[in-house]
Every structure is written in structure tokens, then in C-alpha cells.
Design a protein that fits this description.
Largest sheet: 8 strands, mixed
Shape: globular
Number of helices: 12
Number of strands: 12
Order of helices and strands: HHEEEHEHHHEEEHHHEHHEEHEE
Bound molecules: adenosine-5'-triphosphate
Radius of gyration: 20 Å
Strand content: 25-35%
Helix content: 25-40%
Length: 303
């Protein structure tokens, strides 16, 4: 009896979802040209890796956000708050949520951390609020938050075309160990795309080559197919990109390339142990390094 009365009333009604949501790298990325709508046409192979943010989402009357990275906004400058507001409005939800973000994915790093958090928020609130929206319906909303966001609602590897929102899952086909290196400063995606010269055209050859390379399941073949045509724009602005790639190759990586619009670069290793060896060889003051594995199942996982 005493135990029953000691139980706080609110905790009986409180539900809590804890989940991990991954960063991505681009195994191949090609900007093909500028579209009339102002976006760039791209072709890319996106791959989730197990460097994750952790999101805790609990029932509450209103939406609020707490973040461990104090540099990040907690108002609607944060994609999490925007995702919650957008879903709440679209679903006519009357409930709120207390959301806590434990941030591990570096910000503005070319690793899609904000998009991953936004997708995880949609996923968690769909459950917490009992909406029962399908993944396709969530993805249609997700694209309004950012072209990368729908990818994170799916499984670990996909070919993305159009503005990056047209997804074709690339299931199975091997797991890989990578080393990520970030120079501890952010780079704006908008600024990098803004520097793509007028009249820029490219074909999606390297992206097609990567899709073929993945079929071999050979880390060496995949490493040989790594490509990112934004490197030619970013490397002159940010010379450390070349240094980080050289350091990865000198430490034994099978191949190395910039992820997204940078500044993170990554290398492919023969195995996870090899990735850890490379990480300790490359690790130096001023850089952050991680040995990670590719994610082949769902990108968002309940803890
Ligand atoms: P992409 O490769 O998709 O462009 P990115 O890894 O380069 O992503 P993000 O880490 O997603 O970049 O952050 C881009 C911007 O979004 C930053 O300026 C940041 O302030 C803002 N932002 C808003 N919400 C978040 C969030 N939850 N996590 C990280 N950044 C966020």
C-alpha cells in the first residue's frame, strides 16, 4: 500500500524512448549540376556508420529540448525542434515531448548529424504520440526538413539522386571498418555548394562505379572507388583536408576521401582492428578521430 502511494502520479503516465541515431558518410558523391529550382542535382552513395547521437524522448505537455553540446541552439534553430513542430502540426498532435540530445556527431562536419537527429525525432514522436504513420509518410515530411533526412529513416546504405532525396536502398553487400578524421572546426554546407561554379556539369560515373564496387564486398575495391567531386572546391579553401587524407593513407588506409561537403575525411581499413590501429597512428592534437563500423540495418535503433 505504502509503495503504491509513494509512486509519483506523473511517473506512472510518463513514457520514455531512448534511441541511437547514426552519422553518415558519402562513399561516393558527385554534384552533377545546378537545377532551375536553385538546388544542385547530385548522385551519391550514403552509408550510415556507428558514430551515434543519443536521443531521449519523454512525454510532456509541451515540446522542449536539452542538449549536451552547449553551442547548439535549443529553439527552432535546432532541427529537432523543427521536426517536432512540423510533425505536431501535420498530425494535429496535442501532446508535447521533453527531448534530450546527447551529441557525439560533430556539427557541420559533412556527417549529417542534424539530419540524423531530425529523423530520429520524427521516428520517436510517431511512437510516443501513437500516430502510427508509415515510414513513407514520415519520409515525405522529413524531406521538408532537409534532403538528407529521409535517408536516416531507412537502412544503412542507399543510392541517392535528384536533390539527394530520391533513395534506392542498397541492402546487404558487406560491412566495412572506417576511420573518420575531423579537424575540429565546422564547414557550412551552404557555403561549399555556393562555391560550385556556374555551368558546372558532371556525370554520375563514380557513383555507378561505387555501386558496382559494393557488389564485390571487397574493402580494397570499395576503397579504390571512393570519390567526391566537391573535394576540388573544398581542398583549396581548407588545406588540412589533404593533410588528413595523406595521414590516413600513410597510416595504412586502403583509400581516403572527404565526406559530404567536409571537412571530415574518412579512410577504409581491412578490418575493425586495422581501423583502430590507423586511428591511433593518425590521432593528433587538433584532430578528432574515430574507428567505426558501417551500419547495415536500421539507422535509428531503440536502446
Ligand atoms: P550535412 O552533411 O547534412 O550538410 P552536416 O554534418 O555538415 O550535415 P549538421 O551537423 O547537420 O551538418 O549541422 C548543420 C547546421 O545545422 C549547423 O549549423 C547546426 O547549427 C544546425 N543544426 C540544427 N540542429 C542541429 C542538430 N540537432 N545537430 C547538429 N546541427 C544542427
Amino acid at each position: 500500500m505504502l509503495g503504491f502511494f509513494a509512486l509519483p502520479k506523473r511517473s506512472r503516465g510518463t513514457r520514455r524512448i531512448v534511441l541511437r541515431t547514426s552519422a553518415k558518410v558519402n562513399l561516393a558523391l558527385e554534384v552533377l549540376g545546378k537545377r532551375d529550382d536553385g538546388y544542385h542535382e547530385i548522385a551519391t552513395v550514403m552509408q550510415a556508420v556507428d558514430l551515434c547521437d543519443r536521443l531521449t524522448v519523454e512525454t510532456a505537455d509541451t515540446v522542449s529540448l536539452v542538449v549536451t553540446d552547449l553551442a547548439l541552439p535549443t529553439d527552432d534553430g535546432n532541427l529537432i525542434v523543427r521536426a517536432a513542430a512540423m510533425l505536431g502540426e501535420a498530425a494535429g498532435a496535442t501532446k508535447g515531448a521533453r527531448i534530450t540530445l546527447d551529441k557525439h556527431i560533430p556539427v557541420a562536419a559533412g556527417l549529417g548529424g542534424g539530419s540524423s537527429d531530425a529523423a530520429a525525432t520524427l521516428w520517436a514522436l510517431n511512437r510516443l504520440w501513437g500516430l502510427r504513420w508509415s515510414r513513407d509518410r514520415l519520409a515525405a515530411l522529413a524531406v521538408r526538413l532537409g534532403m538528407d533526412v529521409p535517408f536516416f529513416l531507412g537502412t544503412g546504405r542507399a543510392l541517392a539522386t535528384g536533390r539527394g532525396e530520391q533513395l534506392e536502398p542498397l541492402p546487404g553487400a558487406g560491412a566495412y571498418a572506417l576511420v573518420l578524421v575531423n579537424p575540429n572546426f565546422p564547414l557550412s554546407t551552404r557555403e561549399v555548394y555556393g562555391r560550385v561554379p556556374a555551368g558546372w556539369t558532371a556525370e554520375a560515373r563514380s557513383t555507378r562505379r561505387m555501386v558496382e564496387a559494393l557488389r564485390t564486398r571487397s574493402a580494397r575495391t570499395v576503397a579504390g572507388a571512393l570519390a567526391n567531386n566537391l573535394e576540388s572546391i573544398v581542398e583549396p579553401m581548407v588545406p588540412v583536408i589533404r593533410h588528413m587524407k595523406s595521414a590516413l593513407l600513410a597510416a595504412g588506409a586502403l583509400g581516403a576521401v572527404m565526406s559530404g561537403s567536409g571537412p571530415t575525411v574518412f579512410g577504409i581499413a581491412r578490418s575493425y582492428d586495422h581501423a583502430r590501429q590507423i586511428r591511433s597512428r593518425v590521432n593528433r592534437a587538433g584532430w578528432s578521430c574515430w574507428a567505426v563500423r558501417t551500419v547495415s540495418g536500421r539507422v535509428i535503433r531503440a536502446v
